[in-house]
Design goal:
The chain contains eleven helices and ten strands. By secondary structure, it is α/β, with parallel strands linked by helices. The chain has a single domain, classed as 3-Layer(aba) Sandwich (Rossmann fold), CATH 3.40.50.1820. The strands form two sheets. The protein has an eight-stranded mixed beta sheet, sandwiched between helices. Strands 7-8 form a two-stranded antiparallel sheet. Helix 2 crosses helix 11. It is globular and about 55 Å long.
């Protein structure tokens, strides 16, 4: 049985090279943890040594490393959080797909790690979480960017994502896991998907592989996905809000969602990213970094 070596801080040069980002050496990145409830920790990656300016919240079945290339291109101090039940964070009693539970836990983590952040960025499940976070803890969310998500997401729009996430619980080999991931992400490079798997899966003692989030998959993602009640919450936010929408195959935001978003928040901004699907941070990370830099001013 071949053991695959994994060092989560060893691949930044590869991220930079793939997207032609200037790279002068390993960035200052460390893994940190916050106890958000008795015997429950939220883990995160802290980039830079200055007080974090940005908080990044990933989507369901992802982890904080999904933002690595964006963080390299942005080159600002920030914190990328592993949502409960994802990455290196502990599971939560409220489940791994519950935005309300995540918002409560993430609020504790942000208050400890990035209390003066100027921008919270939430993608997919992280975006729904950040809407509730902004409503319940406005002092932690001076500005909000939603990455390819609105409360209009439903089980039909997300069907291609849940079909992938609810696949086999384990894989006999890394190559089989990579093959399935490549089939689901035909526009991404093999190298980027290989890095993503190493960050988002673990090899068990018998040599098989399991997704990190699958260890806490208490509620299958095939359950109905309905978040329409968050439209009202979104409309009550007082911070500046930007929707960054993917325009390629795979996006879960359609024209009706954009229209309603603009009706609910007339002051909000909508930015469209050509060539990006749902995972804009993976498809167009440098362009996303430019957008976030412009929001920071």
């Amino acid at each position: 049985m071949e053991r695959v070596h994994y060092d989560e801080f060893s691949m930044f040069a590869d991220n930079a090279a793939e997207f032609a980002i200037p790279y002068s050496g390993p960035p200052a990145v460390e893994r940190v943890e916050v106890e958000v409830a008795p015997s429950q920790r939220v883990s995160a990656l802290r980039w830079g040594t200055a007080p974090p300016e940005v908080v990044l919240l990933h989507g369901g079945a992802q982890n904080a490393h999904t933002w690595d290339t964006v963080a390299l291109a942005l080159n600002r101090p920030l914190v990328a959080v592993d949502l409960p039940g994802h990455g290196h964070s502990d599971g939560s009693p409220s489940g791994s797909t519950n935005p309300a539970g995540h918002a409560r836990d993430v609020a504790v983590a942000i208050a400890a790690l990035a209390p003066s952040a100027r921008l919270v960025v939430g993608m997919s499940l992280g975006g729904l979480t950040s809407i509730l976070l902004a409503a319940s803890h406005p002092e932690l969310v001076p500005q909000l960017a939603l990455v390819d998500i609105t409360p209009g997401v439903n089980k039909d729009k997300a069907a291609h994502i849940t079909a992938f996430v609810n696949g086999p619980k384990s894989f006999p080999s890394f190559d089989e896991l990579l093959e399935r991931t490549m089939a689901h992400n035909p526009t991404r490079s093999e190298a980027s998907l290989r890095r993503g798997i190493l960050h988002n899966a673990v090899q068990l003692d018998d040599g098989s592989w399991v997704w990190r989030y699958a260890r806490h998959r208490d509620i299958p993602l095939t359950q109905p996905i309905e978040y329409g009640d968050l439209w009202e919450v979104l409309g009550q936010l007082r911070c500046p809000v930007t929707l960054i929408r993917g325009m390629a195959q795979g996006t879960v935001v359609d024209a009706d969602d954009v229209e309603r978003f603009s009706e609910v928040l007339p002051s909000a901004t909508v930015i469209e990213v050509e060539g990006a699907g749902h995972s804009i941070q993976g498809d167009r990370p440098v362009e996303l970094a430019r957008i976030l830099a412009s929001l920071l001013g």
